[in-house]
Amino acid sequence: MKRAVLLLLVLAAAGSVWAWSAGYVDRVRDRIWGRPPRLSAGDFPAGVSAPIDDVASVPLRTTLVGYVPRGSVSGLVWAANEGNTFKGSYALDVKAVPFEREDALRRALVKGGENGGVDLAAMTVSQLALEANALRDAAPRTVLLLGRSRGQDVLAVGKGITTVAGLKGKRIGVEPRSTGSYFLLWVMSRAGMTMREVIVVDLKAAKEAGAELAAGRVDAAAGYAGDLEPAVKQLGGSFLSSTVDAPHLVATVLVARGDFAARYPDAIRRVLRGILDANATVSRDASAGARALGEVAPWLGDPAEAIRQGPPATVRDNLSFFGLSGEAPVTYFELFASASALGTRLWNNPPTAQPEDTCDLGALKYVSSTRGP
Q1: DSSP of 174-202, one letter per residue?
Q2: What is residue 346's three-state secondary structure?
Q3: How far apart are CA 342 and CA 181, in angstroms?
Q4: Pair type for strands 251-256 and 141-148
Q5: In this structure, is residue 265 part of a structural domain?
Q6: Distance between CA atoms of residues 353 and 129, nearest Å
Q7: Same domain, 173 and 293
Q8: CA quadruple 140, 100, 107, 272: dihedral sign
């Protein structure tokens, strides 16, 4: 009898150890008392690690700025790679890092420059709002308008499709959850259509849209005008719509990690000065910016045309876009709020922060006060 009891105790102990190591104990506990919340960096203010005293006004390492190539970032790319604007004029070592996919850029911003990512990123307001939950740990803060799309984002079709309604049941290629997909949503809404009426084909990157359309693997594609134009000419198709029809829909902004902005506010001011200087140079003569853009993004087609379709923003553009002075048909706050609401309706995205809490305009106010428009 004693042996049987001892054997049962040994088996019970062994079973307990196995159940614990296999995770069954945790599962039962979570089912009874609920799963404990998972904590992350986004649960705490971004500036808690900033030094109490001004130990270093700028980082001692290279400041990394990520971007997906488009016309509005031409000033940034030229200033960082060729113009020597940052290092020569503002004593700040800056490197512009290109990305082919917008989701890769988002992940890099979450990682941060000290962990293999980037410190700042050029992304559209729609991306910032629609992916707010994924970007939460970066505590992103918008600091500058880089430019608006005025024809660079398009919806292209092959021969035989002449209206958006003609896309019913057709295959549309687009990079998932990208600026192109956001533009496609706008086009479809204008025609009173839903995405269930078409077949969405996920592309690995927006720059593949032209090749997919030309090969006949999709009937239409949303992407860059320069990439899709050769395919449209080859097929005898057309652009059904472009951001010429909605020049205030796609706005590219410069977004800083919250901890970087809190730790190095002077670096943010220097970056803004350098970009605004470069934007002014590109606006006067686009050749330098076009050369820099063409080297990193040949799929954009003629880089000078890409800059015309997405001209770099001026100080005046920034002040009106953020409601600091002047007037803009659509402000940053309106764009962010509408994209956030759209994400909630379409994908049940959790509520995001108020638009006013997603930007830090202190550096822009300071820089704009020391220079003209």
Answers
A1: E-TTSHHHHHHHHHHHHTT--GGGSEEEE
A2: helix
A3: 12
A4: antiparallel
A5: yes
A6: 9
A7: no
A8: negative
User: What is the CB-side half-sphere exposure of residue 146 using CA atoms within 13 A?
Assistant: 30
Domain that includes residue 304, residue range: 46-149+249-369
For 39, phi then psi, to 5°, come to -90, 150
Residues 128-176 pLDDT 10s? 999 999 999 999 999 999 999 999 999 999 999 999 999 999 999 999 9
What whole-number distance in Å separates Cα of residue 231 and Cα of residue 157? 9
Question: Would you give the DSSP letter of residue 6?
Answer: H
The 8-class DSSP code of residue 51 comes to -
Contact (Cβ atoms closer than 8 angstroms) between residue 92 and residue 274: yes
Burial 301-316 (b: 16+ CB within 10 A, else e): bebbbbbebbbbbbbe
Q: Are residues 327 and 198 in the same domain?
A: no
Residue 277 lies inside a defined structural domain of this protein: yes
Whether this prediction's pTM lies above 0.90 is answered by no
Residue 273: the pLDDT is 96
200 part of a folded domain: yes
pLDDT tens digits, residue range 24-61? 556 666 666 555 566 677 666 776 666 666 556 889 99
**Co-location of 85 and 145 in the same domain:** yes
Give the CATH number, domain containing residue 50.
3.40.190.10
Residues 142 and 164 in one domain: no
Total domain count, the chain: 2
**Alpha-helical segments (H) within the chain:** 2-22, 24-33, 74-81, 85-90, 102-111, 125-130, 179-190, 209-214, 225-235, 258-263, 265-284, 287-296, 303-309, 315-321, 332-347, 362-369
Distance in angstroms (rounded) separating the CA atoms of residues 117 and 352: 23
pLDDT level of residue 347 (50, 70, 90 thresholds):
confident
